[in-house]
Write a structure and sequence with these properties.
This protein has nine helices and 15 strands. By secondary structure, it is of the alpha/beta class. It folds into two domains: 214 residues, DHBP synthase (Alpha-Beta Complex); 81 residues, Rossmann fold. A hairpin with a 6-residue loop joins β2 and β3. α1 packs across α5 and α8 runs parallel beside α9. Bound molecules: threonylcarbamoyladenylate (TXA) and magnesium ion (MG). Magnesium ion binds next to loops.
Length: 319
């Protein structure tokens, strides 16, 4: 069931959603990045229901959402870079990987049995209200079937997981449109495991040098970095400089490619933030059987463009 979580009725709706979370049920909710499929992170059975609904391989750990830094400190060993990054970027699109505390109440299944957790404070009124009302951490992967495109509209969630979720909170379209940056702070050098809404440049301004793990494989040592991910139904090729017969074109900026069967332009003015916000919606719009494939132009590999190109490469990877 989809319920609007803005306007006059919203407090009652959030309270109802929080009660469902406490009962171990699943709730879809908006964040500034993408919609999440939320469950009580401290309950093994609730977390198992998330893996089941997403049909997700269980070695792939979930992001744990909390309302603020204090809540994070109760779950993991917070180090200096974490404190600095939380100050600058939380609430926001940055998930920090840190070592679990011995008394951490989060389900081991949520972390796929690792001794680390990915934590973030979402920058969204509805998500924060839900976290506060539920009074517990919420484990929430993106609310799509595993390996499919992330949902940035409430309708996407209903389409792919509608029957598996007890309640979906409608907060309108997601502002950022790409997932959070996943940053591992457990090693000597902070390492980006997944580029996302907070850029490498922004991180380096706050804490100095940051590495990017760019390997794309499917071993559990780099969970969630499967080469083929975000896969549309049609085949998608990247770096398009021409359009082949019957192809739909995912373009960026001004260009002179002609002859496509359909086109969506991520940002006609070449704005990377606008492109990120449009990315998943436009891939979905072009993913139709009447086209022979999707030809995607490359976007500049800088700032948010790194996250966009990462998602396009995964969508294009052999399956
Ligand atoms: O923006 C987002 O991050 C969204 C919204 C809902 O918050 N969530 C999201 O979650 O994208 P999900 O589950 O689709 O992606 C989580 C990513 C995966 O690549 C996973 O492997 C990685 O985070 N991850 C989670 N815990 C980890 C850990 N302990 N160590 C390494 N990677 C981890
Ligand atoms: Mg996901």
């Amino acid at each position: 069931m989809i319920r609007r979580a803005t306007g006059p009725e919203c407090e009652a709706t959030i309270a109802e959603a929080a009660a469902l979370i406490r009962e171990g049920r699943l709730v879809g909710f908006p964040t500034e990045t993408v919609y999440g499929l939320g469950a009580d992170a401290t309950s093994d059975t609730a977390v198992a229901a998330v893996f089941n609904a997403k049909q997700r391989p269980e070695f792939n750990p979930l992001i744990i959402h909390i309302a603020n830094e204090d809540a994070a400190r109760r779950l993991v060993e917070f180090n200096d870079p974490a404190a600095r990054l939380a100050e600058v970027f939380w609430p926001g699109a940055l998930s920090l990987i840190l070592t679990r505390r011995p008394d951490c109440p989060v389900s081991l299944l949520a972390g796929a049995g690792l001794d680390t957790l990915a934590l973030r404070v979402p920058d969204h009124e509805i998500a924060l209200a839900l976290l506060i009302a539920a009074e517990r951490p919420i484990a929430a992967p993106s609310a799509n079937l595993s390996g499919h495109i992330s949902p940035t509209r409430v309708g996407h969630v209903a389409e792919s997981l509608g029957t598996a979720i007890d309640l979906i909170l409608d907060g309108g379209p997601c502002r950022l449109g790409v997932e959070s940056t996943v940053l591992d702070l457990t090693g000597d050098v902070p390492t980006i495991l997944r580029p996302g809404g907070v850029t490498r440049e922004e991180l380096e301004d706050a804490i100095g040098p940051v590495r990017v793990l760019s390997e794309m494989n499917s071993t559990p040592s780099s969970p969630g970095m499967q080469a083929s991910h975000y896969a549309p139904g049609l085949s998608l090729r990247i770096g398009a400089r021409d359009v082949r017969d019957g192809e739909a074109l995912l373009s960026f900026g001004r260009h002179d490619l002609t002859g496509c069967a359909a086109e969506c332009n991520l940002s006609p003015t070449g704005d990377l933030a606008e492109a990120a916000a449009n990315l998943f919606t436009m891939i979905r719009a072009l993913d139709r059987p009447e086209y022979s494939g999707i030809a995607a132009m490359t976007v500049p590999d800088e700032g948010l463009g790194c996250a966009i190109n990462d998602r396009l490469k995964r969508a294009a990877a052999p399956r």
